Amino acid sequence: MARILFAAAAATLAFATPALAGDRTFTHEGVTYVYTVTPKGDARVLEGKASTGGKFRLVVRNGWVDGYASNNRVSFRAPKSENAVVAQR
After folding, report:
1. What is d(CA 35, CA 51) in angstroms, rounded to the nearest whole number?
2. Residue 56 phi, psi (nearest 5)
3. CB-based contact 28:21 (threshold 8 Å)
4. Domain segments of the chain: what residues?
5. C-alpha dihedral over 14, 68, 76, 60, to 10 degrees?
6. Which residues of 38-60 are buried (b: 16+ CB within 10 A; e: fewer)?
7. What is the pLDDT of residues 12-39, one digit of tens each?
8. Is the pTM of this model over 0.70?
9. 27 has which bridge partners?
10. Which of 16, 26, 45, 86 is most buried, by the most CB atoms less than 10 A from its CB?
11. Can you tell me the distance from the alpha carbon of 84 to that of 26, in angstroms, rounded to the nearest whole number?
């Protein structure tokens, strides 16, 4: 379960970047995660699975992540994006 929760947290980093067509992937500790990011109103929906079989569905909205990872309810503050654009003069 810890690996899926890591996937959930890591995948939320995608919320700050525009959604691209197709699957996204990353590997952590030998487990490969494949997911999609879909904009839905003011939120982004991340759905995917791990190579070990666990699935996740996360909704990122208003600085929070809510959803399910391996049939476990998760809710946590979204990580701050390093790609955020800050207003400049």
Report:
1. 11
2. -145, 150
3. no
4. 2-77
5. 40
6. eeeeebbbbbbbbeeebebbbbb
7. 545 444 545 678 988 888 888 899 999 9
8. no
9. 32
10. 45
11. 21
